[in-house]
Amino acid sequence: MLSALCMAGVYGILEFLKSAVFVVGYIQGGSLFPEPLTNEEEKMYLEQMAKGDDEARNILIERNLRLVAHVAKKYSNSKVEQEDLISIGTIGLIKGVNSFKLEKGAKLSTYVSRCIDNEILMHLRAIKKLRSRGLFK
Fold first, then answer.
1. Splitting the chain (137 residues) into consecutive groups of 10 residues, what average pLDDT does each group show?
2. Regarding the domain delimited by 2-132, which CATH topology (the fold level of the hierarchy) does it fall under?
3. What is the pTM assigned to this prediction?
4. How many CB atoms lie within 10 A of CB 80?
């Protein structure tokens, strides 16, 4: 049981790093992100993901990475590097895709943009707390 949990954790980290490669490429190259999915493609991949298709999940994450960069721009006036904000936002994207429910009727982009926002805000609050204690510069 523990071995299965460890493998799931390793798989999650590898998937995050795979996504992070796209993020770094976007920052450096400007247009490495693939185009967003059409409404029909998004629905198809969401249905496949609901049936347990991990490849569909990965496609949904990869094709929404552009949204992470867009949301992270809102926090460019913070003292956190843009690359760090994008990395934190990518975690929010992954959590959002994993928890999205198609039957609720919301658009994926609307839902995950809130998840990205929340993840970045949690990070900024944690930094503020550490700074107030003198543990972070």
1. 48 56 48 85 96 96 96 92 95 97 92 97 93 82
2. Rna Polymerase Sigma Factor; Chain: A (1.10.1740)
3. 0.75
4. 16
